[in-house]
Each structure stands twice: as structure tokens, then as C-alpha cells.
Amino acid sequence: MKIVIASNNKHKISEIKAILHEQVSADIELLSLAEIGYHEDIEENGETFEENALIKARAAAALGYMAMADDSGLMVDYLDGAPGVYSARYAGDPCNDESNNQKLLAALAGTTPEERGAKFVSTIAFVHPEKEELTFVARGECPGQILYKYRGTGGFGYDPLFYYAPLDKTFAQLSAEEKNIVSHRARALDSFCAVLKEKLNINN
Ligand code: IMP
Known about the structure:
CATH class: Alpha Beta
Shape: globular
Bound molecules: inosinic acid
Oligomer: single chain
Number of helices: 5
């Protein structure tokens, strides 16, 4: 069974492939956009993570494949959910993890620890090329708090500022194994795999 993942991020694809094989079926062949000859940029102009994941999955499904796509980001309570769908490009153009994190620290300057609640959100959409009724989006969230300065050197993005109280560590202090258990992406993937099995009638 072939499923296209609307991404060209090799790290993400191999991580998702391993989880799909383990939790859904070893018969799934997960193809990247490049592998099906799709080289255009997909414009992510949705207002929610769900919309953006669906936009990407629908673009791949339009080529006749079963398709999946993810979209994720950080939502900060004090900032009314920002940076949200703009997480990757929060600091404007050009931006990178460092400038995004500096902008976040500046936006929260003067706030108390209680005002720095946040969550990481991950959504994963599935679209079937012919059966619209099989479309679904799974969502996973991980609650935390934005620190005043970096702690830890692992991970990427906002990880060094994102404190996860149950483990008393930031995401940048977690091993890949630890992050893969508690992260928003892990939670979304768990739910995605369970629903996919049900939708595709896979019983193993
Ligand atoms: P994407 O959905 O993988 O493109 O992620 C969007 C943006 O959200 C990333 O560029 C990061 O800034 C942020 N983000 C998503 N997941 C994480 C995470 O696990 N750690 C840190 N930042 C993340």
C-alpha cells in the first residue's frame, strides 16, 4: 500500500515511516513528494494547523495517491495563540530558530511565570484520492511553559525555551527517545495510526 507524505524532510519521513510500520502495517510504502515527481511548493495559507495539513495532503492526493501531511507549531497563551501557524516564520524574513526564539522572548518580556503557559500542537491529515469520507485529521498537544532563557542544546525550533514540567526539563534537554514519548507529534501520530487502521480496515 502506497501513501505519499507531503513533505521532503528526510528526518521526519523516516521517523513517521518507522511508526506507521510498527503501529499500522509493515506493508505501507511511504513516498516523499520528490519520489512521486512533485517539485512545486505548496502554499500553506490556512488559518489553522488542521487546514494547513489538509491543504498539503490534498495537493498530493490530487495526483491519485493516498496522502498524509503534518503541520505543527507553538501556541502561547499570553500571545493569544501566537506564533501558531506562523511558528516557522515568526521573526519575519529572513528568520531562523535563533531569531524566532529571540522574538518570542521579547514578546514575553516582563511577564510572570504564570503568564508564560504554552503548548506545542501537531496535526496530521489523511486524504484518500477517491473516498472523501476517509479524510481525517489527528491532533496531539503537549503543554508547557516558556522559560526566560535557553536551557539545553538538543532538539530544534523552540525546544530550548519550552519547559515540560512532568520531566522537569526543556524539550532541548530530552533525549530523542524521551521526546518521542511525550511530544505533540508523538501524541498526534498515536491517534493518527489508530484512526488510519480503523479507516483502512487493517486488523493486525
Ligand atoms: P513544521 O510543522 O514541522 O513545519 O513546524 C513548524 C514550526 O513549529 C517549526 O519550524 C518550529 O519552529 C515549530 N515546531 C514544531 N514542532 C516543534 C518541536 O517539536 N520543537 C520545537 N519547535 C517546533
